[in-house]
Amino acid sequence: MEAKAVPQKNDAASDRPQAAKSGRPAAGSQNALRSPAAGNVYAARQQLYDQMSAATGIPWYRLAAVDQYERTLAGRSKSGGGAPDRLTGIHIPAPLWCGPLNPNQEDTSPASIAFFNGLGCDGSGDGKADPENDIDALYTIADHLMKYGNSASDFGIGVWEYYHNGRASQRIAQFAKLYDHFGRLDLSGSAFPLPLGSTYSFRSTWGTGRSWGGARIHEGTDLFTPHGVTVRSTCYGILETKGWNRYGGWRVGIRDIENRYHYYAHLSGFDKSLSAGDIVIPGQQLGWAGSSGYGKPGTQGKFPPHLHYGIYKDRGLTEWAFDPYPLLKQWEIAERKALKKNNKGR
């Protein structure tokens, strides 16, 4: 009703390219990085992160976290978002790359960029500091971070000094934690939020009016189900919030690697093993459906038991809700197909 067994880590050390003597990644073709095994983008990105990690000493998962945060930012113009075939999502604004007082805001000369206190670096060893070159862009971020040290707290300070945005610092720390924990880039699995064998019903109610606590619209989908039915995580993510909200009652919020916030409200209770900051996987139990909310802590029964599921996208400075109904139907269908396939294979 309201708006608002862990995989084993892969050891890729043996596949890491050697760092160049200059402390930069070994020079190489951008296309060579892009096309292992006919274009596996995750493998190509992992190769780039490992190469940069070997050259700079910054763990690959921290570099990947910065890149992923940049990739998830919305609202960039086509001209400012980089070439469509780039591996990285990193976009460093021209005044930062070239230097705010540099008269040439398309400068690619490392010497003149340094003279005007720009951040841009030549990471590929071709003599140019090109913001559209994946190696140069990632090395520039790494070069900035290296100035602050190698610890996790140093990394946090470096991220803050680049973005000056607490939300960005939090997201990048969350992404780094996920990548480090799972040891891989592909965290795209999903699950329907209720067990498919349970009794439930739902339809699209996005945008309908709500009046309790003031006029507003419904920012989510209500899945009506009996009291006490298990509520499950729909994604890999970090448990960001857990507790009471006067609208949503007992609720849980999870941040996924795509910078989406999954909101589960009106619960009757939580799984006691979970705490804020914990990592969850698709299908993991979060709590149980109920009818809490619309009042002070503990208020129950002002509406039939159900799960309110909402989803929000972080745009860097603001967060906006979008209709979760299409995703819910997609996850429901995919899980039914998977179960049917598994049953046939027995």
Short note summarizing the structure:
The chain is α+β, with helices and mostly antiparallel strands and 346 residues long. It is built from nine helices and twelve strands.
Written account of the structure:
Helix 2 (41-56) packs across helix 3 and helix 2 (41-56) packs parallel to helix 6 (134-146). Mean pLDDT is 86; it is low at 1-22, 27-39 and 75-82. Strands 1, 4, 5, 6, 7, 8, 9, 10, 11 and 12 form a ten-stranded antiparallel beta sheet that branches. This protein is elongated. The longest helix is centred in the last third of the chain and has 20 residues, at 325-344. A hairpin with a 4-residue loop joins strand 11 and strand 12. It has nine helices and twelve strands. The protein is α+β, with helices and mostly antiparallel strands. The chain has helices at residues 30-34, 41-56, 60-72, 94-98, 110-115, 134-146, 152-163, 166-182, 325-344; strands spanning 201-202, 209-210, 216-217, 221-224, 230-232, 237-245, 249-256, 260-270, 279-280, 285-289, 306-314, 319-322.
How many beta-strand elements?
Answer: 12
Unreliable spans are: 1-22, 27-39, 75-82
Give the N-terminus to C-terminus distance in angstroms. 40 Å
How many DSSP helices? 9
Beta content? 15-25%
Order of helices and strands: HHHHHHHHEEEEEEEEEEEEH
Computed CA radius of gyration, to the nearest angstrom: 23 Å
Largest β sheet strand count, sense and barrel closure: 10 strands, antiparallel
- Kindly state the percentage of residues in helix: 25-40%
Structural class: alpha+beta
